[in-house]
Each structure stands twice: as structure tokens, then as C-alpha cells.
């Protein structure tokens, strides 16, 4: 994403959306894993 921004600054908005989606998915994964560990323990 950073390489695309350095080539064309007009892609900044779209790339930020994709980075945000990836971060959100990772965050949901962490939350769900903690919930599963809490139920097992």
C-alpha cells in the first residue's frame, strides 16, 4: 500500500480503506480468540 501511495497520491483513500479493513479483520480475530480461550479456561 505504501509503494502505491508513493507512486500516485490519488490512491491514498482507497489504500487506507484496504489497510483499515485488514486491521479490522485482525482485531476481530484477536477478540474472538480471547473469547474462545475464555470459554475453554
Number of helices in the DSSP assignment: 2
Tell me the number of strands.
0
What structural class results from the helix and strand content?
mainly alpha
Percent range for helical residues?
over 70%
List the helices and strands and how they pair.
Layout: H1 2-7, H2 12-40
Can you describe what's shown?
This protein has 41 residues and is an all-alpha fold. The chain has one domain (2-40). 85% of the residues lie in helices and 0% in strands. It is built from 2 helices and no strands. It has helices at 2-7, 12-40. It is rod-shaped, with a radius of gyration of 16 Å. It starts with a helix and ends with a helix. The relative contact order is 0.11.
Question: Which key features would you list for this structure?
Answer:
about 40 residues; 2 helices; rod-shaped; mainly alpha
Quick summary:
With 41 residues, this protein is mainly α.
